[in-house]
Structure formats: structure tokens, C-alpha cells
Specification:
alpha/beta; about 160 residues; 5 helices; 5-stranded mixed sheet; globular
């Protein structure tokens, strides 16, 4: 499990259009890496749309946002188009990054246990270290929570 102060594991993953993004490309910038279970499901849609609706505030704070799930590039493309999402969704189909960040694990739904992506986020600072770990993400409140934390963290830094 990744903790605050640890170096964020690197990644290179394709986005909804097949363009590969690497964490190293964003050195010197703030990054929100948010992991979610599945495209176009109620909680994941709510979370994505809350970030979309707060997008101007995220841009103002120069925050790069990456949603990550184990869905395909094609699935991400449909999700982005359907909800007009302005940020990047990364396809981790081989589950390498969800495992590196420790978000892949046992889940329970309606009494059934299965393996899946836990809804967690990591705020990564410009030096590539994890500034904040969000373990129990509430889809409807997450965007505001991140904005508040980022304002506090950038004030300290600036």
C-alpha cells in the first residue's frame, strides 16, 4: 500500500485515444491519480462528472487528472464521449498499475466476494512523491476534497 511521502510508482498507460502517458512526463507538476472500478457505473460516473464539473478549478490550480481503471481504451473512449469528460482516462488492462499502487484487491458486493479495483486516489506532488492518499473516496465529495487539499498544499509550497 502506498503511503504519504513515498515516491509514486511510475507508469506508462494508453488513454481513451490510445496515446500513452507516463508519470515521468508530468515531473514538476501536480497529478491526481484516481482509481475507479468500472466505466459508466453509477458511482464511477458520479465521481467522473463531479471532477468534470470542477474542471475549471482544477485547471486554475494546474492539476493534471488521470482516472485509472482496468477497462479497455475503447471503453474509456465511450465513457469520455458519453459524459464529455475533459480529463484523461488511462487503461490498465494488464492490472500492472492498480497492483503497484495497492488498489487491486478483494471487494464485496451483495454478499459476493471478488477481485477488483478499490476506489482510491493519490495526489502526487511536483517532485513525484505522494502528497495525499484518499482511501475511502466518496464519489460526490471527492473533487471538492482534492481541491481543498491542493489549495492548502500549494500555499505551503508557494
Amino acid at each position: 500500500m502506498m503511503k504519504k511521502g513515498m515516491k509514486a510508482p511510475g507508469f506508462s498507460l494508453p488513454d481513451q485515444e490510445g496515446t500513452v502517458h507516463s508519470l515521468a512526463d508530468y515531473k514538476g507538476q501536480w497529478v491526481l491519480l484516481y482509481f475507479y472500478p468500472k466505466d459508466d457505473t453509477p458511482g464511477c460516473t458520479k465521481e467522473a462528472c463531479m471532477i468534470r464539473d470542477s474542471w475549471p478549478k482544477f485547471k486554475k490550480l494546474s492539476l493534471n487528472v488521470f482516472g485509472v481503471s482496468v477497462d479497455s481504451v475503447k471503453s474509456h473512449g465511450k465513457f469520455v464521449k458519453k459524459y464529455d469528460l475533459p480529463f484523461i482516462l488511462l487503461a490498465d488492462e494488464d492490472k500492472a498499475i492498480v497492483k503497484k499502487y495497492g488498489v487491486w484487491g478483494k471487494k464485496k458486493f451483495m454478499g459476493r466476494e471478488y477481485l477488483g479495483t478499490n476506489r482510491m486516489s493519490f495526489l502526487i506532488d511536483p517532485t513525484g512523491k505522494i502528497a495525499k492518499v484518499y482511501e475511502n473516496v466518496k464519489p460526490e465529495a471527492h473533487a471538492d476534497e482534492v481541491l481543498t487539499d491542493l489549495k492548502i498544499l500549494t500555499k505551503k509550497a508557494g
